[in-house]
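From the shared-data thread, chain only:
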Amino acid sequence: MSVFNTSVSGMLADNNWLSTISQNVANANTTGFKNVETEFSSLVDSSPGSTPQVAGVSTNMISLNNLQGAVESTQTVSNLAVQGAGFFVVSDASGSIYLTRNGSFVPDAQGNLVNSAGYFLMGANTENTSGTATINSISGLSKVNVQGAAATATPSSTAKIVANLPSTASVVAAANLPSTNAVGAQYTDETTLTAYDNLGGAHTINLYLSNLGGGQWEVDAFDNSAATAGTGFPYAGGALATTTLTFSSTTGALTAGSPMSIPIPGGQTLSLDLSQTTQLASAFGVTSATINGNAPGTMSGFSISPSGVMSFQYNNGSSVNAFVIPLANVPSPDNLTSLIGGAYSTNYASGNLQVNNADSGGLGTINDSSLESSTVDLAAELTNMIQAQSAYEANSKVFQTGANLFDTLNNLHA
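Structure, as tokens:
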């Protein structure tokens, strides 16, 4: 009877092998699919002091989740692929957390990124923070949403001017300085900056530079909108700020007076860096003038960095870090429980979930506008199919031979 049991177990095992092969072939084009292998283990029926009796074979299906599929570019920026170890953290409609390598994410009607199997991408919302986050658990993660990002404006807070003030310029009399805000006030040179208030309103700041003599210059900042009939002095309300720059008589380098604090109407106090301003015997010239802040803008797109930082881009040229997309892993990825749609859940054999930022903690990086291909090798699967069919036929012949022997023994007994 052991002939029957052994051959039947062999046919069942080969049938399981064929089932695994068919699963692999069917998912040869499934994004992020990891091919499955069938492991064979011999069975021996034995008891102490007895002769072991063969009992056939058993099988176990192993998903090779550690394999890296080829990463291919797409035209959809929200399509994501993991390069290296790790899985995306996703949730279903009920909020249950799973893992997946299927990064075919696109926005749904509400703007949530969801993949082809209906799982929502999870991340840490950083829009109202510094824009970065260190993630070490699933606590606090929410659905990554790319719709309805509010228009944003950034007030100006820092600026820098690099310029030369001519040491040969005539001295401006104290009674005529711009700081007096008098009609006909005099100055040596002038430049402007455009600053933004808290609501994104633009303010032109006029900067008047006046030679005081003795290596000193006065800098006066005025709000252009407060100028008389928009033409100049006097300005309503006077100067926004005044400072005195002191230069070295030997090198012409600035020794005092920077930074200059300028209160922006309706905004923050602007810190104007003048530390690289010089006083040399050459003409007045501004080498560079930079200032932060921007006018209001609406979202025009987004991008995702290799470390998982999602940035929203606005039509005013600004960019805001909105989400941090983490990756997760387990001590034994091949033992994860496979679910429908290329998702996985943890279990005792796989070990506990470990979450971290992408490109850290041994985890891989995230490629946007990319998808990870299936790891199935069709040529290898077709070869395995032939081997499985041959093995099945061999086991069936063993069964038939056993049946013939059984018939012969029955006839002898008769």
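The longest helix spans residues 378-413.
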